[in-house]
Amino acid sequence: MTLTMLGVFLAHVLLGLPLFISLLTTALVGFLFIDVSMVPRMMPQQFFSGINVFSLMAIPLFILAGNLMNASRLTDRLMGLARLLVGHFRGGMGHVNVVSSVFFAGVNGSAVADTSALGSLLVPAMRKDGYSTAFAAGLTAGSSLIGPIIPPSIFMILYASLTNTSVGDLFLAGVIPGLILGVAFMGMNAWYAWRHGMAKQGRFPSARELGVAALGAFPALVAPFIIVAGIVMGFVTPTESGALTALYVALCGMVLGNLNLKDFWKAIVETTRLTSAIFLIMAASATISWLLSYAQVPSQFVELLTPYISQPIVILLMLSGITFVTGMFMEEVSALMLLTPIFSPVAMMAGIDPVHLGIIITLNITIALITPPMGACVYVAAAVSRLEIVSLFRTIWPFVLTAIGVLLILIVFPSLTLWLPTVLG
User: Fold this and answer.
1) What one-character DSSP code corresponds to residue 260?
2) How far apart are CA 131 and CA 100, in angstroms?
3) Cα dist from 113 to 65, 106, 185, 325, 333, whole Å
4) Which residues of 268-290 are buried (b: 16+ CB within 10 A; e: fewer)?
């Protein structure tokens, strides 16, 4: 049954049908194997229950906050601060690219939005400083992976809703891995700049210049603290935190005079479009997840990995390999929705902390955003840099390997993930 469903899904994807229709058709085929009379009763029920979760309301609110930040031009202030902090080093514009992604990750939580917002500005600037177009676009796509790791994170909210894990703990657990990923990409950029003999740009900023830039970016820098501190301290739920952040960014935009009604409406329309696509995929994926659970696929998977259950690192490596390959050929939200219910029981039996598993799965799913043939961030980076998609897919692998290297470090050293939630949880 499972192989037939997989074949049907791949066939529909290759035909170019909308993803949620491909998922629903796959679910229908699965019901034919079990009991076709369940279709009119269970398919609508599971389709609706997959998105009838209060915590999922945080997703459109965080997306709205990110869109409002772009509309309010707060992103430009963050980039200005990043330029002063690291722009004077060798390969400065590449470092600015990565640091801007770290800053922007604290509000949006979406890698694709990060690539789109920063790429159109930073790729031409990097090209002007002597970077090749392929490296500039690759670094933009690669550094955007920091977005779903540093809180807030759409993927973490989805994982939490599927496993009843604390969103606050997941958000805290993502901070150090996100910073490690940023340092890894900055190291890669520094090596590129040294290898190509790039000169230093500008001078070290004065304390006054840094103060002015920090003050200008302060409204944007406050947003991540509102999100994390509010959830961790128990003042607000993730959904309330998203609403509060969106309101805060909107007020900042209006007070600073950069947000008008036209831009506000565009942000709402873009949020609605993206949220609708995500929720349709989630609902269709939830139907397949229920079907696989009904067919006892998770328990069969547990039995398959039982010989390795006493070796958590081996289990995480195997789960990561499966997730990596799946993410290459499946949209990330649907992959997360389908794999998490199967992987979670295995991890529990192996004694793996659910928060640690959440970060590992999130990073795996995120890496899939820059792997061919489905890597959404690569398509966006290719579009903003006017580069052939095939050419960029050919040169993206060093960035993929860098992210995989960070993933392996997090698997071997779980304390890097669990230390912050343990201290502040």
Assistant:
1) -
2) 18
3) 12, 13, 19, 24, 15
4) eebbeebbeebbbbbbbbbbbbb
Token digits of residue 205: 């900023």
- For the residues of 153-191, what is the DSSP string, one character each? -HHHHHHHHHHT--HHHHHHHHHHHHHHHHHHHHHHHHH
CA 197 and chain centroid, separation: 33
For 413, counting Cβ atoms within 10 Å of its Cβ (0-12 exposed, 13-18 middle, 19+ buried), the class is exposed
Contact (CB, 8 A) for 267 and 64: yes
What's the predicted TM-score (pTM) here? 0.87
What the block records as the tokens of 394 is: 């050919």
pLDDT in tens, the chain (425 residues): 667 877 877 787 677 777 778 888 888 888 888 888 888 888 888 888 878 877 788 888 888 888 888 788 887 788 888 888 887 888 888 999 999 888 888 776 678 777 877 787 888 888 888 899 999 999 999 998 998 899 888 899 999 988 989 999 999 999 999 999 999 999 999 999 999 888 777 677 788 888 888 888 888 888 888 888 888 777 888 888 889 988 998 998 888 877 888 889 998 998 898 888 888 888 888 888 888 778 777 777 777 888 888 899 999 999 999 998 888 877 788 888 888 988 998 899 899 999 999 999 999 999 988 988 778 888 888 888 888 888 888 889 999 999 999 999 999 999 999 999 998 86
CA distance linking residue 152 with residue 164, whole number of Å: 17
- Which among 178, 198, 238 is positioned nearest to 417, based on CA atoms? 178
Cα separation, 78 vs 406, in Å, equals: 25
* 146 neighbors 367 (Cβ within 8 angstroms): no
How many other C-beta atoms are found inside a 10 Å radius of the C-beta of residue 264?
Answer: 17
Could you tell me which of 391, 384, 335, 390 has the C-alpha nearest to residue 141? 384
